[in-house]
Amino acid sequence: MTLTGGPMATGVPKYPSDLRGRPRRDRLMSSLEAVVSVYQRISAYSGRRRRPVTPVSRDRELVVDRMRTEAEDVVSLRLTAPDGATLPAWRPGAHLDVVLPSGCVRQYSLCGDTADTRAYRIAVRRLPGGTGSGEVHEELRPGSRVTVRGPRNAFPLAPARSYLFVAGGIGITPILPMVRAAAARGADWQLVYTGRTTASMPFIDELTRIDPRRVWIRPDTEYGIPASGAELLERAPEGAAAYCCGPTPMITSLRVDRPASRVRSLHFERFGPPPISDGAPFEIELARSGRVLPVPADHSALDVVREAVPDVAYSCRQGHCGTCAVGLISGTVEHRDRVLPEPERENTMMICVSRATGRVVVDL
Amino acid sequence: MAADNEVEPGEEQLVLHPRAVRFDWSNLPLHWVPGDPQTTHTINVLHLLLPEGERWFVRVFKQALPLIADERLRTDVLGFIGQEALHAEAHSGVADHLAAHGLDASPFTRQVEWMFRRLLGDRDLHGKAAEEWLVERLAIIAAIEHFTAFLGQWILDASGLDAAGADPTMLDLLRWHGAEEVEHRSVAYDLFCHLDGRYTRRTRAMSIVAPVMLWLFVRGTRFLMCNDPQLGGRDKARLRQLRAASARGTLPTLRGMLGEVRPYFTRSFHPSQYGSTERAIAYLASSPAAQAAEAQQ
Ligand code: FES
Ligand SMILES: [Fe+2]
Ligand SMILES: [Fe+2]
Question: Which of A314, B73, B108, B157 is the most exposed, fewest CB within 10 Å of its CB?
Fold first, then answer.
């Protein structure tokens, strides 16, 4: 038995037969048909007094209460409400969207104390050429106002008996509150904290104060660049849940070596889709408006379409959920998704990952 | 069943993301709760309803996107859509597998298709009427999601199924799905409230959804029991068996399910008051399928 058509099909089926194949209308189906047609009429009536949708803004204005240099090129900001009011509670792994004075939005993990309900702390490393981080370092001062959204949590800490935390450099920010939570719960935990030099690694004192025996500060200057994930996984307690944040090569090495280690599960934060490494530029034409949008090599078609059509639907942005499917009118598509069945490749494109040569025309 | 759990601070901040799980059903026995075809088939009804039902959620939610004037809600809706789309695919994999055991469920699934595509489809409406029908369907989805959240929480805690030796891969599918239902349990409700929110509209949807769901489960279970080639029509679905299964903890109690409707009729109802996000996160952190999906990304 297969449902005709699979994930993309919306074809209208015929009136179904009775469950036992008797030549009469099915009782449930015909009752439902009657109920729904009355219901639909009631719904039209309800619409007359439906209030218009009220736009909701979740922007919150905060003040930079304090700025501190935590390490070379790293400052922390303590953010409070202008009137000192309490702020929404949060859990380890949460981040804030910060709208900088220039309008650019950056996500920063909360790295303060979850028990402090009057202030959020974030820490920012100045990246060479980084527009957001440069702005934080140069333009923000105590007393500056910033707009924030959130907190939201894309990296929740699940309860476990034992943990291994692995942080690389500024990746310590989401990990720090996790370490505190694990210690407070009385879990068995270990932290491996890597970085170039101790001078470049923020919060070393704060961490060692939690429990010096469980914290391994591992600067490259002393131990060399980590040779493998295995080295970082070595200290894991048996059956540990590992929570990691750091540069991509570090995460990759942990993933490679995890199966042979004592770590049972590996968790890391995802920041949107993985970067596009082997893309070539192409053009996408939106048939309904006739607009032609260039898609640069390092952007997805979805990135570009979203600017022009804000209501375009998408979800995973990795080619596995099928949400971003659009009708393909013409063009040669290089399908990179994992959902589209072969027969539908002719007339559908998953714009989050698939690319094209030349110009594609889509039904948008 | 709906214990008044405290809303944990920060729970509602979870960012939803779809997990690209894969399951292999080639070794799944037809009666995956050993020796208990009725429990097996009652739960199997989900595999027949959800593929079409959840694809319908996705289509309706996509249509609602242009009406949303709340960026955070939009983000949640997008996360919800991807999760439901993948739920649909995962369940349809099992439905296909039933056929491999000689159980042809197509008379039932054809009805389900017709219900979700035709009856609850766009009904050739335009303009204002189309928009109201959309909002009405969002109220229906919010009501259905109340049950999926309840069932999700139930399956996470259903140690009776482990004790009965239920197939571990099937349990993982049900619990991964259940956990995501718990994770996103507020989204459909919040979306309906954003666009309308009126008590009468919300509760009248529930008054239709609850009996129809019950009817679908009863007839689905009976249908599967009748057509199960290994039972040869001897064994019929019985209320007595359902009671026994509830007592063993392999199915939720009928009373628990019906009792679930009541809080939905209180004015201050909000889905976040029921179920535990913490529990869902804990399961997803250890689920073999969810872990394998994360490891691949
Ligand atoms: S957004 Fe999921 S497949 Fe494109
Ligand atoms: Fe679902
Ligand atoms: Fe759901």
Answer: B157
Residues in chain A closer than 8 A to B176 (CB atoms): none
Q: Which of A53, A149, A151 sits opposite B69 (nearest CB)?
A: A53
Query: How close, in Å, is residue B228 to chain A by CA atoms?
Result: 14
Tell me the pLDDT tens digit for each residue of A253-301: 999 999 899 999 999 987 667 788 788 999 999 999 999 999 999 999 9
Q: How far is the CA of B77 from the centre of ligand 2 (A)?
A: 13
Mark yes or no for CB contact B95/A11 under 8 Å.
Answer: no
Yes or no: is domain B37-296 CATH 1.10.620? Answer: yes
> Are A146 and A166 within one domain?
no
**What's this model's pTM, rounded to 2 decimal places?**
0.93
The answer to whether position A48 is within a domain reads no
Q: Are A148 and A60 in contact (CB under 8 A)?
A: yes
A contacts of B106 (beta carbons < 8 Å): 1
Per-residue pLDDT tens for A169-204? Answer: 999 999 999 999 999 999 999 999 999 999 999 999
**Sequence ranges of the domains in chain B:** 37-296
- Integer angstrom CA distances of residue A303 from A272, A294, A295, A312, A350: 11, 11, 8, 10, 12
Q: How far apart are CA B182 and CA B180, in angstroms?
A: 5
Query: Ligand 2 centroid vs B185 CA: distance in angstroms?
Result: 10
Tell me which of A108, A132, A152 is where a domain ends: A152
Residues 6+ apart with CB under 8 A from B290: B19, B21, B176, B179, B284
Go through B91-118 and write b for each residue having 16 or more CB atoms within 10 A of its CB, e for each that does not.
bbbbbbbbeeeebebbbbbbbbbbbbbb
Nearest to A105 by CA among A157, A146, A72: A146
pLDDT tens profile B171-195: 999 999 999 999 999 999 999 999 9
Give the model's confidence band at A97: pLDDT under 50 very low, under 70 low, under 90 confident, else very high: very high
